């Protein structure tokens, strides 16, 4: 067994990857124009920073034990993040459909990109938290059937020594949002298929409306 893989299996997955993604989502929400992110621009970052601090202290850098309290706080963070981003997306789509709000292509594209990337982060966290019961369950219980099938898990030898980390789920979410369909990681369970379907739909709507509106403004 490779030294790095052995160390990961012994110590559990680092929480830094997920924490960095949550911090990026906080910054993206703060960067949105005031019109599409008025109240949640302040509420979400404040609450999310507090929850992130508790999670960092609770996990002590690595996720190597089951904790209902910490898992609940993480799920609460994801819910708050998704609500804040959903409100911003609805406001942006409303303005795009009605032809109001943001008037410059640069601001429009940046706002759309921020909402799109936050959506990618939200679904990456969802995949990471629920695949095979979450990072703690994946570390403590081996051999659980996967909800998301990574290429490395397709062969018996690789499946024994390889475990996905947050970046793998972020990559899965990113490619699903850009291709509007699964790429190399296949959803096996119904919840994973439903989540990928929702993510692809949101990304497609944002891409079509934002680009169309930006081109119209340029004309």
Structural account:
- By secondary structure, this protein is mainly alpha-helical.
- It has one domain (3-218).
- Helices cover 72% and strands 4% of the residues.
- The chain has 9 helices and 4 strands, in the order αβααβαααβααβα.
- The chain has helices spanning 3-11, 16-31, 40-59, 68-98, 105-130, 135-140, 156-161, 166-179, 190-218, and strands at 13-14, 62-63, 148-149, 186-187.
- The strands form 2 sheets. The chain has a two-stranded antiparallel ribbon with strand order 1-2.
- α4 (68-98) runs parallel beside α9 (190-218).
- The longest helix is centred in the middle third of the chain and has 31 residues, at 68-98.
- The chain starts with a helix and ends with a helix.
- The relative contact order is 0.14.
- Residues 1-8 have low confidence and may be disordered.
The helix/strand order is HEHHEHHHEHHEH
The major pleated sheet works out as: 2 strands, antiparallel
| Low-pLDDT residue intervals, each spanning 5 or more residues | 1-8
Question: What overall geometry do the principal axes of the alpha carbons give?
Answer: globular
What is the radius of gyration computed over CA atoms, rounded to a whole number of angstroms?
19 Å
Q: What percentage of residues falls in helices of 4 or more residues?
A: over 70%
Q: What is the first-to-last residue Cα distance?
A: 59 Å
Number of helices, counting only DSSP H or I runs of 4 residues or more: 9
């Amino acid at each position: 067994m490779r030294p790095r893989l052995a160390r990961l299996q012994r110590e559990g997955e680092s929480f830094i990857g997920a924490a960095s993604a949550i911090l990026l989502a906080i910054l993206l929400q703060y960067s949105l124009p005031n019109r599409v992110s008025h109240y949640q621009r302040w509420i979400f970052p404040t609450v999310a920073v507090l929850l992130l601090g508790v999670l960092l202290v609770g996990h002590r850098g690595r996720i190597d034990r089951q904790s209902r309290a910490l898992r609940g706080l993480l799920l609460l963070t994801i819910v708050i993040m998704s609500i804040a981003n959903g409100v911003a997306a609805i406001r942006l789509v409303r303005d795009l459909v009605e032809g109001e709000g943001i008037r410059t292509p640069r601001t429009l594209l940046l706002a759309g990109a921020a909402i799109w990337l936050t959506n990618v982060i939200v679904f990456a966290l969802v995949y990471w938290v629920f695949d095979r019961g979450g990072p703690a369950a994946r570390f403590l219980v081996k051999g659980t059937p996967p909800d998301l099938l990574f290429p490395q898990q397709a062969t018996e030898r690789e499946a024994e020594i390889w475990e996905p980390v947050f970046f793998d789920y972020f990559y899965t979410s990113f490619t699903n949002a850009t291709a509007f369909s699964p790429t190399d990681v296949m959803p096996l369970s119904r919840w994973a298929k439903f989540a990928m379907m929702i993510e692809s739909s949101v990304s497609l709507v944002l891409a079509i409306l934002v680009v169309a509106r930006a081109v119209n403004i340029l004309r």
